[in-house]
């Protein structure tokens, strides 16, 4: 399953990419979003590349049908890796929800737009289980959509400090 999001910011792309390549941003954002047990597993930054891998515990906010409870726990251990090409301002994030067959990937393109900037996110959700895989993909997409407004509001609040 694929879908797109566009997140807009009131600051230029150069400022936003500075935030998106700051370890402190991720630690603060995940804490502000109410995630627990946040741990940076890997982190690297050069003049042209940034990558961070973080593990955290998140609550599933979508009411799950009975069949899905076998596959998706109410408390999810998530490992998310964000990687950015800082010169081209393109990135990729990959999400593993531990203990589930669902994978989430997202290609990102950050660019100046109007008086600010925008990040275009092209998400792909996959689940290889026959018969129920597409339903689990849809539930995961619903969970992402339920959380995106809070996520972007938190990111915009943090951006004010950059």
UniProtKB/TrEMBL annotation:
Any Pfam family the entry gives: DUF2505
UniProt protein name: DUF2505 domain-containing protein
Query: Which species expresses this protein natively?
Result: Fontimonas thermophila
